[in-house]
Amino acid sequence: SEVPVQLAEVAEQLAEVVGQLSEVPVQLAEVAEQLAEQLAEAVGQLVVVAGQLAEAVAHLVEVAGQLAEAVAQLVEVAGQLAEAVAQLVEVAGQPAEAAAG
Hints:
Blueprint: H1 2-100
C-alpha cells in the first residue's frame, strides 16, 4: 500500500526536476544574449580606440614630416651661413694681403 504513495512522490520529484531542467535552456539563452551584448560593446570600443590610434599615428607622421622639412631648412641655412663666413674671411684677408704686398 506504501509503494503507490512512494511512486507518486518520486513522480512528483521527477516532474520538479524536469521543470527545472526546462528552465536551463532559457537561462543559457539569457546568458548567451548578455555575453553577445558585452562582446559587441567591447568590439565597438576597440574599433573606436583603433580609429583614434590611426588618427594619432597619422598626426605623428605629419609632424615627423614637418620636422624633417625644418631640419632640411636648418641644414640649408647653416650651409649659407658657412658660405657667408668663408666670404667674410676672404674679404678680411684681402686688406692684409694688400698691406703685406
